[in-house]
Protein 1
Amino acid sequence: MIPARSILPAFGLGLGLAALGLLLDGETHPGGPGRVPPDDFRSGRFVEPKPVPGGRVVIHVPTRLDHLNTVLQSSAQARRILEEIHARLVERDWETWELEPSLAHEIEVDDIVVLAGGWGEGTENILIGDVTRRGDEVIIVTDSSEERIPASAAQRFEPGAAITFHLRDDVLWHDGHPFDASDVIFSIETYLDPTVRSDHARYRFERLHHFEAVDEHTVRVFFEKSFFLALETFEDDFTILPSHVFDLSDFDNRDFDPDATPERRGSYINAHRANSRWIGLGPYKVVEMTDQHVDAVRFDDYFDAEQAGFVDAIRWRIVSDDGAARQALLAGEFDFFGRLRSRDFLGEFCSQEDFVERFEKGVYYTPQMNYVAWNMRRPLFEDVRVRTALAHAFDWDRFIATIGNGMGKRVTAQWYCFSPNYDEDVEPIPFDLERAEALLL
């Protein structure tokens, strides 16, 4: 029997090959971002030193950045820089890959009961809480109450579709302005604004039915339907903008204009000088951005002292040619370079004296995957047997062994393979040409 489901023929986990040479207490310290795989990359050539705060780190960036506002563009490089200069409502723990509160000190996820009559304009026709159904009754439990309604009074249930973010009250933007719920609400509105260049990301927020500021430090959002990635919507792909900088209707904006048209408000965001002169919430603040580099220094008023900047300054240096960048690495012009090819990692490049004396090479996995997707709107791919046959017809193990020099991990879902959501018991579709041929006959 052919299961009636879509088949993605294969996944390849994101793999980072990096050279790292951080000066810590006079020693070169191996390390790297992301979860280190079980076969830790440390060579044992260096003794673990005692880290000493201070100094500057220079990190390679392969592409020139127009700006840093990922509301307006999908840029992996900008997102990586924002990891140091910005903060988010929730962030993923690099070891456990669990989502944890950041700008929100507490997060509540509740079920929704949509009452008979359907969604209203706001929240007047819904109930939220821990919802269970017993016989002809629906029970909605909150921290302070328990409500019972006839099951006939409920149109439908949406588990986990309401999220309440309780924001920290000690967070400052890099210009000293307090962060609060108005910034979060404005940012959601910006993603949804058709006059803003956010087409690449708008779809994620179109699932929201309603969102509101409950008070100055509380934001609540309601998804129209249950969505398994609801909380992830507000992870690293949700860039919070300072309302007092980008919102013309914010009284604290230096260009305050409450009568601005929607088109004027959108063009103001699209062309704002702060898109490159970034004002963020992270442990480092940008002090200069040019075509050659982005410079940031430690932000002394960062809200989380334990996670504050360890070094004094970071420079992201832009070198677009990988060959030139590798030579700059050997010359000691970079402290971190993350674009080593597997043949360089395993071969002559990382074995030469200039590299060995200064750097440690390392492997780290990223929560990304590469895959081949079939367009099911085309008649050829409508039949699941065709898609399954194509999956059987490609030898991913050989691909990883040859093209990737064995440095890769095959996975069976879009969930990160080190996360608690990943099911290790799901076997990948095997390479089997006979089975592929049989399915296509």
Note: Confidence is low (pLDDT under 50) at residues 1-15, 21-41.
Protein 2
Amino acid sequence: GFPITPTMRYEAGRRWVSLAADLRALPAYIRAKEWSVGQWLSSYLAPKVYHTFAWDDPWPIAFSFSRFVGRKVAMWQLRRSMKTA
């Protein structure tokens, strides 16, 4: 119910980071010889903007982490139930 004041802040030279997406894409980059692990790691030295993390708003990362844990638990339970069946 509170009014929202838009922020029009933009900083050039920052890299948008989604660690989960980056980790999923890394094997393909390595196979295609586009990146090495070292190049990928060094890309994280540049100033970054995270897709789910901000110091002033921790809820998106908390929600994302809880979903991640929930999926892992569900997969573990499924595998466990398949072994006992």
Note: The chain has a mean pLDDT of 84.
Protein 3
Amino acid sequence: MKRVLAICLGGGLAVPVLRAGEIHVRADAVPGLEDGTAAHPYRSITGAVRAAAPGDTVRVHPVAGGYRETVDLLGLAGGKAEAPIVIDGQGSELVGSDPVSPSGWSADAATGTYTRRDLRTKRFLMVDGRILPATKSAPSALKEGQWCEEGGGVYWKPPGGKGPEAFSVEVCTRANGVQISGSTAHLVVKNFNARAFWNDGYNIHGEVRAIEFYECNAREMGDEGFSAHGSAEVLLDGAVYEHCQNGVFNANTGGKTVTRNLVVRSVRGIGYGFTPRDIGVEHTLEGAVLLDCPIALRVGGAVTVRDVVVLSSGPELHTGLALDHGGVFERVAVSGENVLPIKVADAPGFHRFSHVVLNGRRAVQIRAGRPLAEVVWFESSAAAEGASSEVMARAGEGNRRFPLLSTEAFLGMLESGELPGPSPKWVRKARDAAHGE
């Protein structure tokens, strides 16, 4: 049962006591018998959570094909400080897309494009497991692998001169994996994997308080893996975000966020960041690997960043730290031959760096109308030969130059303590991420 009714004897009277219980969910359960018990679980995660009371745990059982639903908690009251509602995905997958039949496409032999008019795409298709944003090209100008929308139709030019039947195609139909808003408080969400939503994996709005996410991963998102808005106060502890627009991007104008144990890999935009205008919001990032992100960190204001490794392995020009306003950065390492390690905007506030290590050829870029020493300073930092002479000239004692290193050699020197930087734990995590583990 959802809750267990116990009887306590007090003063000779039988007193009912409601104990926290478990509510079970299985998407493949028999319809019509749902009561939340293990024998008759709910089929919908949203339905189960809305039936929960403070102290209850919703146990979501993994099923083949995952859960093709948005866990919609908009307006949910939530739990209590001493009795939160816990939603345990137990490794379940939330899926934001639906399969597209290979039939139904009309071929244009002259251009190699295929057309259909029965899809509501929200700007994203999934082709062989990878999210594919729409292009702005006209149908006649599509290159192989591209698609666009025009006049209510979807136009796609499959690669290699192949037809749609050679690919697995899905359309992203759902906005978010988990969405929360209103004045919800005291929720714990853990152990989920979100895939192929056209907006975010985990989307938080409103005046939510004491919302905690643990091991909530996402891949192939149209926008963020995780995003907080409004005046949200949230904790994200343990997440891997891959092939999203941004990994974590918080746009809350109040409240605060704490992010820990984060790995972001191969996003199209920002690894971790927030809107620079919201400088009064407190953000903390503790422990992260940001791998192959066009902008690894876009931060400033009331931010504290500790134990972060930024790596870039490709030929594209990436930015390690894009900074606005002020911030505290401790034990941060940036490595990559084509990485602009630090870019500071012409904005008020000071940045404090401690044990920041830069390994690359490009110089720090300061867009400021005043001397660098008034904008940024380093403590126990190091910069590769030729990379940041202006910074090195103003850095404190204990700084030293070293030749440009391979990422593997750089990580080895960090792990051994030969270079001052992130803790060995996060250096090892960075090495694993770089090796695809």
Note: Residues 271 and 296 are 5 Å apart (CA to CA).
Protein 4
Amino acid sequence: MALKLKQWAGRYALVWIALVLIVAGLVAGAFGPRTQPVAAIVTLVGTVALAVWLARQPLWNRRSLEAGGNALIKILALVVILAAVNFLAVQSGLQVDLTGAQRFSLAPESKKLVQGLQQPVEVLIFDKQINAEARQLLELYQRENPKFQFRVVDPQSDPATAQKFEVRGFGEVHLESQGRQERLREALSESSLANALVRLTQPSQGKVVYVQGHGERPAEPGQRGYSQAIQALEGRNFTLQPQVLAETPNLPQGTKVVVVAGPQRPWLAA
């Protein structure tokens, strides 16, 4: 009897060691700070040890299944491995986007922008609730940098906050950082949010002088206008300034770009 017990203990020694490591890692992860490396490392070592033991066992042959206790131990080991892997995934925060259009990932430019935030930024959505797509987008930004936070504010339940941001209706999105405020100029999307972050956190990119007076394409919306390009420049924190050179020949200070959009008449000699 003692010999059998000793053999049984030796056979399952790796299982007990693995279980002790996994339990220790889970406890450390549950009661310690999140994403601490020790808990994840201990849990990973225990999981690998248990997986190695399980892989070496004849799990599904008849003889093994006839021994009910052995089969039960192996099934429990498999369950523990799955639980430990799930814990490690939560601890690491690792996510893999396998969709063809990368629907659940931010563009590299957006990641770089939000990762570079030096001061806390809060996004306030003035509505009763937000849809799943908008929440998913905001959570993607938040995951890149804890300095990025968001909350939904019901203007009717919190009129003081709505008044502070001069909210005119439901659906408005405002950003605040270090006492500065910025309002989304378009519907909430990755690009509109990135543009608002640039305007809020970065200094002006400079002036874009849009030359007029020679039949150039107008800046206003229309068939011949470049309104979308202009809106994109303004969204990236450039200041647009139309200018008739015959009236004001000198470019303003801080001019970065001069746009000459298809003049129809020759320029004056001056």
Note: The CA atoms of residues 205 and 238 lie 5 Å apart.
